[in-house]
């Protein structure tokens, strides 16, 4: 309902939601599901009051139904203590496009398998090129949970909240402030899980490992302290650190010790009892998006599962973390995924595979529009030795923001086809990663708290004007 007003939404939801000031009660859940497609569209594409009111209604309706943005921190620490087994791997899913419908597919698969240990995430870079600020992303995920009848904590994560080495080198204070500003925006929106990525600051040219990792662990500790200052009361935001840039050399046990010992020393200088990270990201052979061959197919990736397992074990046994995190995993062969829970990997990050499913089932016209957009806008990024297939594979993700409305406006049959393919892929991953039947673990360990928000002030002012007008009449 593009262009609707606050009053129009209230009238449309009459009998479905009871709205009393800042309080929202769901009186007809089935009716709410029937209105959700349009409500989330306003949350994404609306403007001004329409957009803010739609986002507020989705958030508060979720609160009323017991769908809470939550932190996975307690679950991961329980794994580190041995109170919960380390035989499942939490999928952290980057939804770059068709976020609402893709999340719906994930929730359908989760419901089939009674899976609850799931993370929906978006990286700092993806926020830019997919045109999804945190508040929009949260609205899309919560709306999808409502639409599919999902219940319980929702883990929404800022992936790779990364300190740019180039920007840090030219202006460290400015770059750190940019990351802090994004952290505040994300937490305010409902991101109660954040991966701090200062691994870009590791300097392998320095001699001792402590010196190689110093900038990494000191800035990670500084950002940890900042998050603890701004997180909502009663919420301990789950934080992750990273010891090696994805795509670089494989991480080592010695690097893990150097980072963790330095990080803990630095963090103690801020406050002796401050909560630190609950997981550590490592590099064991993957790369973001996979390595595409000249013919457009993906090169086979060899993950060093032995190293991954050893790093995770040490993270749990010596530092009481949930374990090690693997990035860049969605383009691995299907036979690889069951290995992650076998070696105790606490979390893996998945993105490009879901994007590829979208394009595999998309109408040719949107594929052509994507290719044309990439050729027109990113020609300078094409390397001399790249084939057309390699160039398009690497750049098409950057078209998802500019073409976002076209993906949302796909006909119902196409959306259903894409959604079904995504649901089957999610079900496959949830099964292989052994997160089926994890609802009990989440219920036992995670504190899911309601975090209510005031009605948008502009909506309050509009209602007061309407009342004044009625009295004048």
Word description of this protein:
There is one protein chain. The chain has 473 residues and is of the alpha/beta class. The protein is 53% helix and 11% strand. It is built from 20 helices and 11 strands. It has an 8-stranded parallel beta barrel, surrounded by 6 helices. The protein has a two-stranded antiparallel ribbon with strand order 1-2. Helix 5 crosses helix 18. The longest helix is centred in the middle third of the chain and has 22 residues.
Would you kindly provide a brief summary of this structure?
The chain is α/β, with parallel strands linked by helices and 473 residues long.
Helix content: 40-55%
Strand order, largest beta sheet: 4-5-6-7-8-9-10-11
Number of helices: 20
How many strands, which pairing sense, and closed or not: the largest β-sheet?
8 strands, parallel, barrel
Distance between the termini: 28 Å
Radius of gyration: 22 Å
The poorly predicted ranges are: 459-473
Count of extended strands: 11
Descriptors:
eight-stranded parallel β-barrel; globular; disordered C terminus; 11% strand; 53% helix; alpha/beta; 20 helices; two-stranded antiparallel sheet; 473 residues; single chain
Annotate the secondary structure layout:
Blueprint: H1 6-12, E1 17-20, E2 23-26, H2 29-45, H3 48-65, E3 67-70, H4 73-81, E4 90-94, H5 99-113, E5 119-123, H6 124-129, H7 134-148, E6 152-162, H8 165-170, H9 172-189, E7 193-197, H10 209-230, E8 238-242, H11 253-270, E9 279-282, H12 305-319, E10 324-326, H13 339-342, E11 347-350, H14 352-360, H15 364-377, H16 388-395, H17 404-408, H18 412-432, H19 439-445, H20 457-472
Parallel strand pairs: 3-6, 4-5, 4-11, 5-6, 6-7, 7-8, 8-9, 9-10, 10-11
Antiparallel strand pairs: 1-2
Helix pairs in contact: 2-3, 2-7, 3-7, 5-7, 5-18, 7-9, 9-10, 10-11
């Amino acid at each position: 309902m593009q262009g609707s007003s606050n009053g129009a939404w209230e009238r449309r939801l009459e009998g479905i939601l009871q709205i009393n000031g800042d309080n929202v009660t769901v009186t007809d859940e089935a009716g709410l599901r029937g209105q959700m497609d349009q409500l989330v569209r306003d949350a994404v594409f609306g403007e001004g009051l329409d957009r803010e009111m739609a986002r507020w209604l989705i958030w508060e309706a979720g609160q009323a139904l017991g769908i809470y943005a939550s932190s996975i921190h307690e679950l991961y620490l329980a794994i580190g203590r041995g109170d919960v087994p380390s035989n499942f791997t939490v999928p952290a899913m980057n939804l770059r496009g068709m976020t609402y419908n893709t999340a719906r597919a994930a929730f359908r698969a989760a419901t089939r398998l009674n899976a609850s240990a799931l993370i929906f995430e978006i990286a700092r870079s993806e926020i830019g090129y997919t045109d999804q600020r945190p508040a929009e992303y949260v609205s899309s995920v919560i709306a999808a949970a409502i639409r599919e009848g999902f219940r319980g904590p929702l883990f929404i994560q800022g992936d790779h909240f990364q300190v740019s080495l180039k920007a840090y080198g030219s202006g460290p204070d400015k770059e750190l402030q940019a990351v802090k500003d994004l952290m505040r925006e994300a937490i305010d929106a409902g991101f109660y899980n954040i991966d701090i990525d200062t691994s870009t600051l590791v300097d392998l040219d320095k001699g001792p490992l402590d010196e190689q990792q110093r900038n990494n662990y000191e800035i990670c500790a500084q950002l940890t302290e900042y998050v603890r200052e701004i997180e909502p009361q009663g919420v301990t935001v789950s934080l992750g650190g990273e010891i090696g840039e994805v795509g670089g050399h494989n991480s080592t046990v010695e690097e893990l010790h150097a980072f963790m010992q330095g990080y803990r020393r630095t963090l103690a200088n801020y406050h002796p009892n401050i909560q630190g990270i609950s997981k550590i990201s490592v590099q064991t052979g993957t790369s973001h998006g996979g390595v595409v061959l000249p013919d457009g197919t993906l090169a086979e990736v060899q993950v060093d599962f032995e190293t991954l397992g050893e790093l995770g074990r040490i993270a749990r046994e010596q530092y009481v973390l949930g374990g090690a995190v693997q990035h860049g995993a969605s383009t691995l062969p299907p036979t690889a995924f069951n290995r992650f829970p076998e070696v105790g990997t606490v979390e893996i990050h998945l993105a490009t595979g879901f994007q590829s499913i979208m394009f595999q089932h998309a109408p040719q016209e949107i594929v052509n529009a994507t290719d044309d957009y990439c050729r027109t806008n990113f020609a300078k990024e094409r390397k001399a030795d790249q084939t057309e297939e390699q160039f398009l594979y690497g750049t098409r993700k950057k078209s998802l923001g500019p073409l976002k409305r076209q993906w949302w406006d796909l006909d119902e049959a196409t959306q259903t086809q894409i959604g079904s393919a995504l649901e089957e892929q999610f079900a496959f991953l949830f099964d292989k990663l052994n997160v089926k039947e994890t609802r009990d673990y989440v219920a036992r360990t995670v504190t899911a708290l309601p975090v209510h928000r005031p009605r948008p002030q502009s909506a309050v002012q509009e209602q007061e004007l309407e009342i004044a007008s009625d009295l004048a009449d």
